[in-house]
Amino acid sequence: MTTPIGKGFRSLNLTLRKELQLYANVRPCFSLPGYKTKYDNVNLITIRENTEGEYSGLEHEVVKGVVESLKVITRGASTRVAEYAFQYAQDNKRAKVSALHKANIMKKADGLFIECCREVAERYPDITYEEEIVDNACMQLVSDPSKFDVLVMPNLYGDIVSDLCAGLIGGLGLTPSANVGANGLALMEAVRGTAPDIAGKNLANPTALLFSGVMMLRHLGLHDLAEDIHSAALAVIAEG
DSSP string covering 23-67, please? Predict the structure, then answer.
């Protein structure tokens, strides 16, 4: 299951996301009582476009020693993930959506992404909308994560920023995720990968998997069961 680096087969997770059109990767990131880190006020959601961008898989060698990798941004996919982010914010009583981008450099690709976000934002006047250049957003996140609420971004930025956010609360072993598509289709996963280096050592943190299961139960409408498991896990962590 581990994805080879620089060679071999395509990521199985990436294949599932593309084939099933699971277009939004959703990662809640919140401080856990009893698990002390530098921050105790983290409560944000990263929403990552999941089907295109730099992960479109369009790479080729132009001439020996020169490789070209294409970044694909489309209006349809950008609008779809922006709509998901704003609807998520509205449904979960979140106050702000921040679109992360690099449109100062990639003026057409990321420019199209934030254009779509602006168009969607106009339909949600009760939700504050802002734009942040992604490198500055990373600096702001590690300086004061409480500035952010819901963050929406293209694929590669989302991969990086969501891992950064996990570091704010203690690591990937604490961070759940959901990959959401149309018609109620969703795939939940712990985001820490296969971790073969700690296999059989009784070191793997089950929290991310438990919380991913909680996200699945909520997606299925089983909110009481989800709350029971979530509360029990938080209580155990709080006990130290």
Answer: -EEEEEEE--TT---S-S--EEEEEEE-SSBGGG--EEEEETTEE
